[in-house]
Amino acid sequence: MAIGTVWASRRSDAVAIGEADSRHGKRQWRLGVRVLALLEEEGKRLLHLEAIDEKRSNAKENGKKYQDGMALLYNRFVKGKTFSAGQLMLKAADHIRRYLANPSKFAANWEGPFIIKEAFDSSYYKIEAQDGSLILELINAKWLKPYYC
What is the pLDDT of residue 63? Predict the structure, then answer.
């Protein structure tokens, strides 16, 4: 270092003013390296986001395959109830259908027999009592079972 140079305090280290040009060049080089590092990180981030999208679509496909398989398995073992008009049926008691407490320990779980008056495609049925009095509410097939006499 030369005698008589003026010192300037930039940051924590002291550098002579005459050396400022070379230091500025180093700063630009460091800045360029940082920009390249940021661009590289951004590229990695974009690749990571693309990988996340790919993983998400794979998970969605696997979920759909699983649901389809479970639906096939369920449908294989479930038997639908279909009844025709004029057939005798028993109807689940009101306390069973509405999930209420049993009136007593020995209360009947099924009422009837009833006759199916009209059958709808949606597995709902219009029923009437054996004496011919029509029951106004529609009833689902899950609350009916065949009456064998």
Answer: 95
Domain that holds residue 29: 22-78
Amino acid, single-letter form, for residue 79: K
**How many angstroms separate the CA atoms of 112 and 93, rounded?**
9
At 20-39, the pLDDT tens digits run 444 555 555 565 666 667 77
Q: Can you read off the two tokens belonging to residue 83?
A: 């009844």
H or E stretch at 32: helix 20-77
Same domain, 122 and 72: no
pLDDT value at residue 72: 92
**Residue pLDDT, tens place only, 26-73:** 555 565 666 667 777 777 787 788 888 888 999 999 999 999 999 999
Q: What is the pTM of this model?
A: 0.48
d(CA 26, CA 28): 5
Whose tokens are 């010192």? That residue is: 7
How many residues can be counted in the chain? 149
What is d(CA 109, CA 144) in angstroms, rounded to the nearest whole number?
11
User: 146 CB contacts (<8 Å, ≥6 apart)?
Assistant: 83, 87, 88, 89, 90
Distant-in-sequence, close-in-space partners of 4: CB < 8 Å, separation ≥ 6: none
Q: Is residue 17 part of a domain?
A: no
